[in-house]
């Protein structure tokens, strides 16, 4: 049996763990604009990232966007996941395919689509003007709203598929029993379905939250140059100034915060509904 | 069945094969798209294939090339023979000690390089400079960088985020500083914020905004302006009276290149006057050698007069490399905030 997990383990060790260890080592080095990376063993990069109000703000923006995107994905995804889970026959296969459809185009292509929709001469603005509701264009691009909308469309399929696979496992007769005893639909949802679907809610939210925290293309293209999230900030350090040590430190801070919040959030949700 | 012996045999055969083909090969790390294609058409096919040198392009972003150079720095045998980078990045990598000094006898065409563009570690390939692009229907011809601060253009000034170094130094010059003193740019750029400039994350998005006439004026490489004009965007350009900041795309040979002789031959071919002219018409860049003359109809659109060239504000690369992280910090934290 252990031999069966060997190929995957080796692959992960080689492709994931080894580069991470190397990157972590880099994060302890020092940077010089001329020599680029100087061997050292210091926590200075971490300290300057944590004490710098700019990066705290960037982290704050990232957390807000990730939180709202996850919440919207959960709220919008749950009913769809329920419908999908309770569906039978040919339609189900088609709808599942349609759900994953957005994942078939890359992030950049999808963002380009949003740009043609939201630009000042885009479809939405043109439509509003045609109906006479507006005289000048409203700024839709380069706003936090555009970023959240863009990210939600990326992560929604993950949420729906994770949730519906768990909801499928909830026996229909549990719901029917509750209804027979006089529970209204909302009570059935609150007391029966949601608690039973909780593992899916936790898994889906964790997955989506992680994806949101690490979003790169969407915030850059839809948020514009003045909107900063963590992944673009990390990229900036690596690419624009070739400051690998600081970029690596930022990357590990992002990793730690994402991991910490995901674990804490899952634990909290599960404890709350365990009763 | 695969045994250890067959594996070893296959590996040996593979390494022999790469070594054999490496005899006439030169690996060129460069940009894809137009640039890579023009290299094939103007440099590789007409000048290198006939003498038995086969060029293999390793296409990718500039960042990927820099990463590769840094990562391979300690290897005795690198994977790249020729590396293309912009002037600023080339200087930075040269400082990191990854490049061989140009072997002048092996690159005879280097004798024709324009004087101000000669460097020990690289050859210049093509050139453009930061000018002021503007919509002639909306505004009068600007004179220089200072026009960006004109309150009449409030909300109509576009700033390319990617060009933060050139925009900062242009602002520094407008504020009384220079290529070796960026400090005045701070006050200037903070002042510019009152004019509510629109900052675009990519050049393509900026071009879209120019096309839609959402913005009217922007500092940009003339080569880009030329290409946008060809794409139907209504644009004119003004070379700043205080002097334009040039951008040069360069080529160099890493110290651990496997095939240096061919690499130098490649650099020499890049400086061939006919090959140089091939990049003007499609990409809008100007030759870097004195013996290539642009056709008159293109020269007016992409070229710089001798007087304008005389006034070029060539970056002080060593100063720039030192202050660039500081500039990016200011750019992100204060200008864009």
TrEMBL record, chain A:
The chain crosses the membrane at residues 65-85, 97-119, 139-161, 192-217, 246-269. The keyword Transmembrane applies. It is a multi-pass membrane protein. Its main location: membrane. GO terms for cellular component: plasma membrane. It is found in: Cell membrane. Residues 59-265 form the ABC transmembrane type-1 domain. InterPro entries: MetI-like, MetI-like_sf. Keywords: Cell membrane, Membrane, Transmembrane, Transmembrane helix, Transport. It comes from the Bacteria. One of its GO terms (biological process) is transmembrane transport. Belongs to the binding-protein-dependent transport system permease family. CysTW subfamily. PANTHER family: ABC TRANSPORTER PERMEASE PROTEIN, INNER MEMBRANE ABC TRANSPORTER PERMEASE PROTEIN YDCU-RELATED-RELATED. This is ABC transporter permease. It comes from Limobrevibacterium gyesilva.
TrEMBL record, chain B:
It comes from Limobrevibacterium gyesilva. CDD domains: PBP2_polyamine_RpCGA009 (cd13589). One of its GO terms (molecular function) is thiamine pyrophosphate binding. Residues 1-22 form the signal peptide. It comes from the Bacteria. This is ABC transporter substrate-binding protein. Keywords: Signal. GO terms for cellular component: outer membrane-bounded periplasmic space. InterPro entries: TAT_signal (IPR006311). One of its GO terms (biological process) is thiamine transport.
